């Protein structure tokens, strides 16, 4: 018995139990523990004990063996847990060692100067290494790190565009962007349908075309579903449309008191679904040379607007957002809320984009009845009645009144400035609906206009590796036949050149030549008589006029120029100022030749990040100041140029964020 008790002592001792002898004394705490293990008849022996501390119990052999077996089971369980813990510890230590080795390898590559190529294109591997670094420095926990890694790996298609050019950012800045990225991709995708009159590259006559394509592509790249509905113009360019097909089922649309048939064509542009509406009974509406500019424009686009909504209902589409544009599709506002919201579109909300407040479309009220609207109900001051011509309706005003959000597109103005310059006395309407007004900057195609990826350039470069720009400058000089003895090249790219621009150009070119710079002007495909005269007047070895609309030369001029003269910072058609900044060419206003020049609207610095940056950096810089800084303070100039190149002003950046915020804010109205 004594040997058995000693054996139990050896087994149970590691568990913290008191030593056992042939007779066992129980403390009050031990009594509760051990008595639970005894048989019921043994428990009775303790009931009459005068004091637990003085009670001795002779444990039977059976109970000792039972206790012994229980202790063994406890020990085996604890050992198993200890082994699992050791394995986990080894795994963590191994992973930590791997992380340290990977960081050391990256540091070694940096010190050896072998990361030049990777700096040009921020790779997923390097991004993951930065997350590893954040874990090791206790900035984030392993759980959040795992979520961030998963977001990156599962959305690697978006990483290059979203995280390009962040190598110089510290971990705190990068972590903020990573968290924003993770939150964005976890957001429920939106279904957005644009109904508009233009879209690049199939139908384009105004900035609306590039805007629709740019914003739609950016939204699509961020995981949303975007579709566009357009008229099928006779002059439409069908070549860029993939998978173009005619839908056999035709759509009826109410117009002029009866129902009319439409044929629907579908296809894909830039991965965006496109539907083209072709009227079968009113083919003359869109079989014309121009998109608009005719006396029956309201009738044409009112028909298209009604047909687009009928198509949505018949096809069963229920988009989150219906995005309409300018006066051409503004009539969709009252059509939607008065008729179509009750036809399966109760969960859809309206966003209206306005590019030009001066084009408003004033019409007789009875014209509304052609598309099924009640003119008496809508011809009111708080609805469509024009603020000045009380006997007319204002179609643009209807878009503002009947939309949940109104987006103005401007690269240089604030909401206040836009309201003040609205024209046609829309100020009272805009003031009433001010809470739903937003402003967004224009963007540009960051996939085709990026010097780090540009296929047209002889050498690629970026803000962090700008050496390639010097090679592009050499290539531009060679192509234009310039000499090598000039410290700067001044570029100028126009879609159209007005007579006023020509007068300013003459002064700017002469000044640039006087300072020893070279000058290249790229105009439209046809030289105007005034521009031809200027070309004859300023024949010089350091001046070139280019009338060829060649894409490679456009990219080369952007890359090879030090300064880009612009008639305005607000360039919705070509977005030259934004592209110039990305290519390391400073945008300077054309009429800013003299030191005394000051930007006439310097007090209106806009309400977008892009407008604030451009106006604060370049608005008060004259051509002479820019040339002097290039020549006399090259280091300071280089810092300014690199700072601009590091910013993202493409459609994917601020412009897309404004639209997403607008969509999310109205989705639950």
Question: Overview of this structure, please?
Answer:
- The protein is an alpha/beta fold.
- The strands form 4 sheets. Strands 3, 4, 5, 6, 7, 8, 9, 10, 13 and 14 form a 10-stranded mixed beta sheet that branches. It has a 5-stranded parallel beta sheet with strand order 17-16-15-18-19, with helices on both faces.
- β9, α12 (332-338) and β10 form a beta-alpha-beta unit.
- 36% of the residues are buried.
What's the CATH C level of the largest domain? Alpha Beta
Task: Indicate the CATH architecture of the largest domain.
Answer: 3-Layer(aba) Sandwich
User: The CATH topology of the largest domain, please?
Assistant: Rossmann fold
Mean pLDDT: 83
**Low-pLDDT runs:** 1-57, 113-122, 595-603
How many beta-strand elements?
A: 19
Task: Give me the number of helical elements.
Answer: 25
Kindly report the oligomeric state of this protein: single chain
CATH homologous superfamily classification of the largest domain: Glycogen Phosphorylase B
Strand content: 5-15%
Overall number of structural domains? 4
Form type: flat
Our Rg estimate from Cα atoms comes to: 37 Å
User: Considering DSSP H and I runs of 4 or more, what fraction of the residues is helical?
Assistant: 40-55%
Which structural class fits the helix and strand makeup?
alpha/beta
Q: Please report the distance between the alpha carbons of the first and last residues.
A: 83 Å
Biggest beta sheet summary: 10 strands, mixed
Enzyme class: transferase
Domain Starch synthase catalytic: 191-430
Organism: Asparagus officinalis (Garden asparagus)
InterPro entries: Starch_synth_cat_dom
